[in-house]
Write a structure and sequence with these properties.
With 83 residues, the chain is an alpha+beta fold. Helices cover 28% and strands 33% of the residues. The mean pLDDT is 97.
Length: 83
């Protein structure tokens, strides 16, 4: 089981939120959506969270967007998750 499986990723600023599906040393394999393919990211460019809700709140705050707007996108990308 992966601890803190939700994350924000990006270089200089946060580009989006995703789910960590695998870890290998300092490389995290993340999925941008439930049905999407995984992508490898250096852990230095990833901030991890316990829940998708926490990641969505931080992403909304960072972008200056409403939580409701980002939550809607999160539920489209990860429909089986509860926020």
């Amino acid at each position: 089981k992966i601890e803190n499986p939700w994350c924000l990723y990006g270089i200089i600023s946060w580009w989006g939120f995703s789910k960590v599906v695998e870890e290998q040393r300092n490389i995290l394999f993340i999925k941008y959506s439930e049905k999407g393919e995984w992508h490898a990211w250096d852990s230095d460019y990833v901030k991890r969270f316990v829940s998708l809700k926490e990641a969505v709140k931080e992403y909304a705050r960072h972008k200056g967007w409403s939580f409701a707007k980002v939550k809607e996108k999160a539920l489209e990308d990860f429909p089986s998750e509860n926020i």
